[in-house]
Amino acid sequence: MKHYIYSILLCIIGATLTCCNSSTEEFYADIEQDRDNDEITSDDYEYQIPVIFHVLYQDRQDRKQYVDYTRIKELVAHVNELYQGDVYTYQEYDNSENIHIRFVLAEKNEQNQTLAQPGVEYIKWTGTYPIDCEKFMGDNSRRYTKYVWDPNEYINVMVYPFNQTKDESSITLGISVMPYQGAGYPQIEGLNNTKRTKLSKSNLKYAHCLCINSKYIYYESNRYKGITSESENTENLIYDANATLAHELGHYLGLHHVFAEKYNKPIESYADTDYCTDTKSYNRPAYNTWLSQYIENKRQEAESAGKDVIVLLSDMISRQNDTGDTWSSINLMDYSMSLNYQFTAQQRERIRQVLYYSPLIPGPKKERPNTRSTETATDEPLDLPVIIVK
């Protein structure tokens, strides 16, 4: 997930939000991890996906490096609420679908040893720091595979401060791999086909994971605090780490951005490129230009009147397509400014297809259709077609 930096601090008028709070403890206690042998009886079957956070730090006294364990638990709790749907609902906007996934903090490591702190390991990093997230994710030399636990049993989340990109006008909050199309299973558009039914950790040359920028890990919207109808701090909304993690998990489970893109980059187009026709596409570069001008106009108006700059959330979350239709951005697979809480029915279906059929995803699979093709198992590293997205 990437966000653009604008030249002034913003003050946002809040929107009315209905929400409910839940305990952070319930997401790892007494859970039978990924339940590989379960039979999937319906599309409402609830997946339970173990997650392991690998916190890469150098200074243990820096909370943005050695992230508080309580914060890790909060992130999982809030992401579960977002994937549950109908937990955070704005009165004037559509509800979200229930994906029927529960992310759980891993209780045991790959050696079946019980973790002292479920779902997290802290690793003292000796390399260049902060870390270049694109080089980390794009390395194909097996240098970083040692940090990844078996992706068939866990979702791996790397947590570390990202170094600043060459584009100083933007900040990367998260980055993820996309899943694969499994051979012999129903086609899932927009995913690379490995021509294999199964993959193992030993087949990987790269770190199959997602990464979160720990510089912003304590930011979050007021909605998680149960606050309704109160002005929202802009930075908390833009850098909301809960929405960032939910967004990157969306990529990890097969979702693309809702705006028009090519080769996973925003483009000057209104084309529908996310393979979900019930999401609304728009021209992201054009929106960025409009938003910059909107903020500058508000700044000039305030300066002329000798008043503080006030911008409206309802204005900044507005989107428009090439036919003039307008709507408010609420989808989790959009960039800021957005309310970032919704999954649509087709996004839900796409995630479910990945859970059912894609390799390197924890949890039970649907039976593979009978085919004449045979597959020879191998533990050798493979040249896999990796897609990396922000």
UniProtKB/TrEMBL annotation:
Stored Pfam families: Peptidase_M43
InterPro entries: MetalloPept_cat_dom_sf (IPR024079), Metalloproteinase_lipop_BF0631 (IPR023852), Peptidase_M43 (IPR008754)
Organism superkingdom: Bacteria
Single GO MF annotation: metal ion binding
GO biological process, one term: proteolysis
Parts forming coiled coils: none
Keywords associated with the record: Disulfide bond, Hydrolase, Lipoprotein, Metal-binding, Metalloprotease, Protease, Signal, Zinc
Peptidase M43 pregnancy-associated plasma-A domain span: 239-355
Family the entry assigns: Belongs to the peptidase M43B family.
Protein name: Zinc-dependent metalloproteinase lipoprotein
Organism whose genome encodes this protein: Segatella copri
